[in-house]
Amino acid sequence: MKRPLVSIVLDDTLQYPNGDEWFSPDHPFPEYPFKHLSKQKNPVYAAVRSCLAGAELDQGNFGSPEWNPLGAYISPGQNVFVLCNFVQHRWKGGMDAFHAKCTHASVIRALIDYILIALKDRGKVHFGNAPIQSCEWEKVVQDTGAARVAEFYRQFGTSRVPVALTDLRQHIIRHRIIGSFEPRLHRSDTEMCVEVDLGQHSLLEDLYQSDGEPEFRVLDYDHRRTQRCHGRGRHLYLIHRHILDADVLVSIPKLKTHEKVGMTCGIKGCVGAVGHKDCLAHHRRGSPRSGGDEYPDSLSFLAPISRLHDLVYTLPTGSIQWSLHLMHQWCRKIVRRFTGALSGSWPGNDTCWRMALDLARIVEYASRDGHLDGKRKRVHLCLTDGIVAGEGNGPLSPRPVRLGYINFADNVVAGDYANCIAMGIPPSNLPMVREAFRLNVYRIAPNSPSDVICRVNERRLNLDELSQVFGRKFRLPREWEKRRCS
User: What mean pLDDT value characterizes the chain?
Assistant: First the structure.
C-alpha cells in the first residue's frame, strides 16, 4: 500500500489577493491551462503549486507543460467534488475575522485548475458545501470570492468540463426580526439526498446502554427528527447526491478551532456533505450524570434552557413560538457571559467527534445509492487553507491568525494530524483524530502516524517532528482553554 503523504508550505508573508483578476496566477507557469494572467501579485496560487510540488507528485514532469500533480488521484472523465468550508456569511467583524472561518477563493481557484489539468477536458467539477441553515449563500460566496471563481470558469472554461458552484443545503431558513425566522427551502429527504445507514458500525452505537438510549440533539433543529435517524443498530445520515456521485472528493477546509471537537479541518469538514443536518448528532441532552454531554454536571441548572430549546423547535410557527424563541435566545446570551458550555460546546462532548468520524468514513465508502460493502468508493484528498487561520471560539467566531500555512494530504486523517500539530494541539488530546487510528471497520487512517511521508517547505520530517517547526499554540475555545490551563 502506498504510504500517505503530507506536504506543507509555511510562509508568513502570504496574503490573499482580491478577486479583481479572478485569482489567476501572475506568472505563466508551464502547465497553466488558461491564457488569462493576473496583473496583480497572487502569491497564493504559487504557494498551492509549491505545496503540490513539495509532495513530489509527477516529479519527473515538474517544470514542463505536461506536469500533472493530481493525475495520480484523478483520471480523465471523472466527477470531482471540491468540498469547501463556507460556514456563514459575514455579519460582523472585518474581513480578517471572516477569512479566519471560511475557505478563501484564491486557494479554491488554484486547486481547481490542477483538477482540470488532471481531467484533460473530460469530466465534471462541483464546488461548495452545506453551510449553517441561516447562512445567506449569495453573501458568503461573494465575500469568499467563490462567485468570482465560478464566473471565471463560465467565461474562460469549457463546456466539456463544467465547473459549478453548489449550495448543498436542503433546509434553509431566513431570519426576519429578532427571534423570528421562516423556512425558505425544505426539500424532501429523497430529492437530492441519499440515506446512508452505518448501522452497528456507527461510533454512536457505543453510546447505547442497557438502561436507556441517548437523546441526541443538534442546535436549532427539531430533536424528534434527529432521534428518528438514530436508534440501536440504525444510524442514518442524509448525504447530498453530488457528493456520492463524485469519483473524487477534494476537501479545502479552514484551519480553525471548534467548540465541540477542538478543531475544524478535514474530518469535521465532512459535515458540509450533509444535505439535511437535522440527522446529525452534535451532543446528547443533559449532563453526564443523566447520560448526556450537553454541559458538565456542575451546570445542571441549564436543563430548563435545554428543554426550552426542544419546545421552540417543535412548535408550529406563530406568535407563541416567536416569543419562546426570543426568550431562548436571550437566556443563551446571558448564560454565555459566564460559560461557553452550551449545546455540547466543551471538551466533555463525547458525541460530536463520533458523528464526524462516521461522516468521514461514509464519504469514502458509500456507493452512489448509499450502500456500504467495505470497499472504498472514492478518493478523498485534502488541502487545508491556513493562510489566515482561526483560534478561540471557532467555528463561528474565531480570532484571525496570520499563519501563512497550506497543507496538502492524500489522507484526511494524516492531514488533520499535521493540522493539530500546526495549531499546537497534541493529536492525542482530540478524540476525533486519536480514535481515527483505532478504527477497524471502514478504516480511513494509516496504521500509524509514522507511516506518513511529511515535507515542510520541501524539507522531509516525521509527523512527530513537526512541532519543531511551529512555535505558536493556538488559543482554544473558551471551555477547552480552561482545561488546558487547569
Answer: 94
Distance CA 39, CA 176 (A): 42
- What distance lies between CA 140 and its chain's CA centroid? 15
CB 131 within 8 A of CB 137: yes
**Chain centre distance of CA 173:** 21
What are the cell numbers at 441? 471497520
3-class SS string, the chain: CCCCEEEEEECCCCCCCCHHHCCCCCCCCCCCCCCCCCCCCCHHHHHHHHHHHHCCCCHHHCCCCCCCHHHHCCCCCCEEEEEECCCCCCCCCCHHHHHCCCCCHHHHHHHHHHHHHHHCCCCEEEEEECCCCCCCHHHHHHHHCHHHHHHHHHHHCCCCCCEEEEECCCEEEEECCCCCEEEEEECCHHHHEEEEECHHHCHHHHHCECCECCCEECCCCCHHHHHHHEECCEEEEEEEHHHHCCCEEEEECEEEEECCCEEECCCHHHHHHECCHHHCCCEECCCHHHCCCCCCHHHHHHHHHHHHHHHHCCCCCCHHHHHHHHHHHHHHHHHCCCCCCCCCCCCCCCCHHHHHHHHHHHHHHCCCCCCCCCCCCCEEEEEEEEEEEEEEECCCEEEEEEEEEEEEECCHHHHHHHHHHHCCCCHHHCHHHHHHHHCCCCCCCCCCHHHCEEEECCEEECHHHHHHCCCCCCCCCHHHHHHHHC
**413-457 pLDDT per residue, tens:** 999 999 999 999 999 999 999 999 999 999 999 999 999 999 999
Q: How confident is the model at residue 180 (pLDDT cuts 50, 70, 90)?
A: low
Residues 446, 462 contacting (CB under 8 angstroms) = no
* pLDDT tens-digit series, residues 104-124: 999 999 999 999 999 999 999
- Amino acid 441: pLDDT: 97
124 contacts: CB under 8 Å, gap ≥ 6 = 79, 80, 161, 162, 164
Is residue 269 scored above 80 in pLDDT? Answer: yes
Cα dihedral 370/374/378/384 (nearest 10): 100
The predicted-structure confidence for 5-59, as pLDDT tens digits, reads as follows 999 999 999 999 999 999 999 999 999 999 999 999 999 999 999 999 999 999 9
Total residues found in the chain within this entry:
486
Q: List 382's β-bridge partners, or say none.
A: 251, 409
CB 103 within 8 A of CB 389: no
Confidence of residue 171 (pLDDT cuts 50, 70, 90): confident
